[in-house]
Structures are given as structure tokens and as C-alpha cells.
Amino acid sequence: MQVSAAARSALFKRALLNLAAIAAVTAIFALKEAEWEKRAVIEQSHAPKLAEARADLDS
Questions:
Q1: Exposure string (b/e) for 9-37, b if CB count within 10 Å is 16 or more?
Q2: According to the model, what pLDDT value does residue 47 have?
Q3: 2, 11, 12 from 19: Cα distances, Å
């Protein structure tokens, strides 16, 4: 049984759409990961200041 050209074209378009959706979700997760990494760096840079402030409060 041969697949018609229209069916083959529809399958190809569906595959491209699925690939585009996967790429979009991957890009979103990559952006979120970069945002989380940036937040972690900022929090780590504030950690010494917070520790010093806590030490000042405790003394």
C-alpha cells in the first residue's frame, strides 16, 4: 500500500510541527535555567554580606 502525496505531506508537516514544539520547549527550559543560574550567582554574592550582618546582630 502506497502513501499518497497528500498524506505524506501531512505527515511531514506534522513532524515539523512536533519538532518545532520540542525546540520551543527546549528553548524555554534553557532560558529558565539561565535565569535560575543568574539568581543563584546573585544569592551567593549576597551570602557573605548576610553572614556579616547576622554576626553583627548576634554580637
A1: eeeeeeeeeeeeeeeeeeeeeeeeeeeee
A2: 85
A3: 25, 12, 11
